[in-house]
Specification:
heterodimer; A: about 90 residues; three-stranded antiparallel sheet; 1 helix; about 10% helix; B: about 250 residues; alpha/beta; Elongation Factor Tu (Ef-tu), domain 3; Rossmann fold; six-stranded antiparallel sheet; five-stranded parallel sheet
């Protein structure tokens, strides 16, 4: 597992967004990567915030787990990279 | 209608600045009054939202510096290329308002019931949530043993220095100054490495709980060192602040 680059955040940084989306605290939830099967706390996922939204990646295989995009006042949520997410 | 959000949902609340305290040349603590503040747990943060006159909004997360039960405060470090921190650390005045959402966080938190011994590892402004933990521990009269390893560029950059120079019983504070040391300094003078961890950290056999917070590069480095030292990954909690110019 490579160390994260300097500017990369973790799931703690999007804790508020996750409460908005899921209605509950999610940083301690366990997410399982749909690509490599690694299970981690959401707080430990790699979080990238390019200008258009938020991309969450698996620490182990770097595949995308979650994408959040705010468009026209609606938060679009893509969780297809996760095999499961258990709060 | 404000204040009637469904349980579990967060709403943006108005925070009014009560007072500000400069901790270092680049770091300021802001005391806030939030009328419907529900309290928080040590280690949590709030999201702060600023709205410009043209409607442009910027949001950032800031760790809560105060212990549960104390007046809510945030400690903010000014980033040279920051969009929000220069305003919060230089422009903001008592009576000014901004929006906060929170408290947020269910992983990087410590309750007395979690026990210890505790190993707290702070890089720069990463000290903020750990200081909330220390103050909370002291308020409750907890006797959980704590070692705090705090990495700063220089003595002038140490946040909460006076407070950390007089820690509560059972708390040991170890500083490392990475760029500049005062004359006669006998403490650590380098970035945290495996050897320093081996000297400072509770033995893994004590089943300690570790919290590491600060720039992402700092957290990555200390977390790896702790794992190499024998700490199970599930006993290491991390919070990465991105690149802070450290």
């Amino acid at each position: 597992m490579e160390p994260l680059e300097a500017g990369v955040l973790d799931g703690n940084a999007i804790g508020g967004l996750l409460i908005e989306v899921f209605g509950t605290e999610m940083t301690a939830a366990v997410g399982t990567c749909g690509t490599c099967g690694t299970a981690s706390r959401v707080a430990e996922f790699a979080v990238y915030q390019p200008g258009l939204g938020t991309v969450v990646r698996c620490r182990h295989c770097d595949n995308v787990l979650m994408v959040f995009v705010l468009a026209h006042g609606v938060t679009c949520v893509d969780l297809l990279g996760l095999a499961s997410l258990v709060a | 209608m404000a204040g009637t959000a469904v349980r579990g949902r967060l709403t943006w609340q108005t925070a009014t600045v009560g007072s500000v305290v400069d901790e270092t040349a680049r770091v300021r603590t802001i005391f806030l009054d939030v009328p419907d503040w529900a309290g928080h747990r040590a280690g949590q943060h709030v999201d702060v939202r600023l709205t410009a006159e043209d409607g442009y909004q910027a949001e950032r997360a800031y760790s809560i510096a105060s212990a549960p039960g104390e007046t809510l405060s945030l400690t903010v470090e000014r980033l040279e290329d920051g969009e929000v921190s220069p305003y919060l650390t230089q422009e903001l005045r008592a009576g000014d308002e901004f929006e906060v959402r929170g408290p947020v966080g269910g992983y990087f938190v410590w309750d007395v019931a979690d026990g210890g011994p505790l190993l707290l590892l702070a890089g720069g402004s990463g000290i903020v949530p750990l200081r909330s933990i220390l103050r909370y521990r002291e308020r409750l009269g907890s006797e959980v043993p704590v070692r705090l390893l705090y990495s700063s560029r220089s003595l002038a950059d140490v946040i909460y220095r006076a407070e950390l120079d007089a820690p509560a019983a059972g708390v040991t504070v170890i500083h490392t100054l990475t760029r500049q040391q005062p004359p006669g300094w006998t403490g650590y003078a380098r970035r945290v490495d495996q050897e320093m961890i081996a000297s400072v950290a509770w033995p893994a056999a004590d089943a300690p709980l570790a919290y590491a917070c600060g720039p992402t590069s700092f957290v990555e480095s200390v977390a790896s060192a702790l794992v190499a030292f024998g700490y199970p990954p599930r006993r290491i909690r991390t919070e990465r602040f991105g690149a802070t110019g450290q």
